[in-house]
C-alpha cells in the first residue's frame, strides 16, 4: 500500500497509539512541509512513546518554521513528565541551533539530577555553538560522573573555544580510555601548541583507537 498524505493523516489521528507511531514513521516519506504540519499535535500526544517519536523528528522537520519549533520544544523541556522526551527536546533544540532556548536548557540542567537530561544538554551546548556554553561545560569537567565528563570534553571540542585546552589537557592520563579517546578528538578540533603536545602523548597511547585519533589530529594540523 502506497504512503500518501491522506493515509498518514488517518494513522496519526487513530485512537490506537501503535497506528500513530506507524504514522510518525511514515512521515519521513512525505514532503517536509506537510509532515511538519501533521507532526505538531503529536508533540503533546497523551502517550509518551508517541511524544518521544514526534519530538525526535523535530531536529529535521523543525527547519520548516523555527519560531513554531522553538515554542513546541520549549514547552516539552519545561512541562513533559517523561525524562526521555525532555532529553529528545534538548537534542532537537541543539540540532536546530535554537540559541534562544539556551537559558531554558541551562535552567533544566540545574533543576534536575537526571543523567540522561544532563548528557543531552551538555552535548547540546557543544552542538549549538553558543559561546555561553563554555562555562557550564567547563564546570561539568569537575563532575564525579565519568560519562558527564566524557560528554563535556566532546562538547568543548565541538564548541571550538580554545580556552578549553588548558582545562582538557589534565585528562591526558585519565584511566578511562573513553575519556582519553574523546580528549584526542576534542584537541584535534581545538588545535594550538598545547593541544598538539598533548596529542603527541596520546599518539603513543596503548589503546589503538586513541593513538589513531591523536595521529589523525596531528596530521590534520601539520
Number of strands: 0
- Mean pLDDT across all residues, rounded? 95
Helix content: 55-70%
Quaternary assembly: single chain
Overall geometric form? elongated
Structural class: mainly alpha
- The total count of helices amounts to 15
Q: How would you characterize the largest beta sheet?
A: none
Question: Stretches where pLDDT falls below 50 for ≥5 residues?
Answer: none
Strand content: under 5%
- Strand and helix order: HHHHHHHHHHHHHHH
Taking all Cα atoms into account, the compactness measure Rg is 20 Å
Task: Give the CA-CA distance, first to last residue.
Answer: 55 Å
Short characterization:
By secondary structure, this protein is mainly α. It has 15 helices and no strands.
Keywords:
15 helices, single chain, mainly alpha, 222 residues, elongated
Question: What's the arrangement of secondary structure elements?
Answer:
Layout: H1 5-12, H2 17-26, H3 32-39, H4 48-56, H5 58-61, H6 66-79, H7 83-95, H8 102-111, H9 115-128, H10 134-140, H11 146-159, H12 165-168, H13 177-190, H14 193-202, H15 208-221
Helix pairs in contact: 1-2, 2-4, 4-7, 6-7, 7-9, 8-9, 9-11, 10-11, 11-13, 13-14, 13-15, 14-15
